[in-house]
Amino acid sequence: MSRSGQESESTGYEPQRYRPGEYAREHIRITPTLLADGRQFFYLDDDPEHVSGAKTRELKDPRHLADRFAPGVDAEGKPIPVQAPQMRRDPLTGDWIPMATARMNRPITAGPGATAKGNPLAARKPGDPYQDGEVPDTDYDVVIFENRFPSMMQVPGLDPQTTYVDGNQLWPVREANGRCEVVCFDPDENSLPAQLPVKRLRTVVEAWAFRTAELSALDGIEQVFPFENHGQEIGVSLAHPHGQIYAYPFIPPRMEDELKQSQAYHERTGGNLLGDILAAELGAGERIVMRNHSWVAYVPAAARWPLEVHVAPVRDGVLSIDQLDDQERWDLAQMYSALLKRGNAFFDKGDGKGMDLPYIAAWHQGPVKDPRRSDYRLNLQFFSFRRAVNKVKYLAGSESGMAAWISDTTPERIAARFRETGPVDLSDED
Description:
GO terms for molecular function: UDP-glucose:hexose-1-phosphate uridylyltransferase activity; zinc ion binding. This protein has helices at 5-9, 22-27, 48-52, 198-216, 253-269, 273-284, 326-345, 397-402, 411-420, and strands at residues 29-34, 40-45, 72-73, 79-80, 86-89, 96-99, 142-146, 163-164, 172-175, 179-184, 223-230, 242-248, 288-291, 295-298, 307-313, 359-364, 379-384, 386-388, 391-392. By secondary structure, it is α+β, with helices and mostly antiparallel strands.
């Protein structure tokens, strides 16, 4: 894992399921440490000096933060154990709803409601009056750490129990015994993900694979979800190139719907639904927007969003990012880079420069334990609710009230515009 035994011993961390491929063993160095309040933190370095060990990373977090699992006190000053976030089940839908009260206190650096004068995701700046950053070192390539204000959290020694709101079995309640992590793609807080070189995005792909494997090994985790929110209009509170990874202690509603459809399709036809969708899109051809040796990007035939692209691996049997081989990870970095650039070029303001597109990039992976995982297939769902240079799609009565989607365009028009922004075959690009 880490090339320095001393660094690995600083936390006693040893990987459970992650096994780096040849490229990662030779060109990416993972260095673990702990932040001041006990949260796990990982440097992923891709520059040769840190990979070789000629340079090392700062492991000590200088902040004075209380241990996040230290007991608190009640109104009478009596000690009480730390409380995990809770989640309640909606009896109408069966959905688990985490109650993320800690997120009310998180710092915000973007938009009119900004509360922080500094960026907690930036590298440490000696002498800067803002000293509540999450990164101990003055530089980094890619870092991963547990979210300081998580909507889900695993408390050591806590055995999740089901109780009931008001003692009524209509409303089950449990600890939200999951995990939330942050992935910072680059130290430059002013850069955009679309501007990062493919080599850096290859390190980001390795971060997704590393954490998918490791989070899947945690007790009680049912689904690992890497995702990226980008743009103030999406609701991003920290203006820095970064994404997140949620490890859910339940199957999220969207995945539950997809698993039900995939299982029913397999029982009816014997086929794999996502595999057959990809084959059908390739056969039709009209909605294919990009492809390379390992991946295909297409606008789905029933696209919901005014800009929507799904990305799927060519190889069958891939359920999660950690199952990708080295070539597939490189090809994914290339395609993700092209996807972000072309997303920015999608809407023409008249000056030929495009725009910084607000988007969500959501990785749909096979569930960790659910037996229906064998009927699933890894895919990325990329979308934006921008429908014109100066217009966004609002989820009004039909979408928000009944989850009955109404599209503002057609998938064929989306695909045609995407194909105007660059060649379908990425081997034609440098």
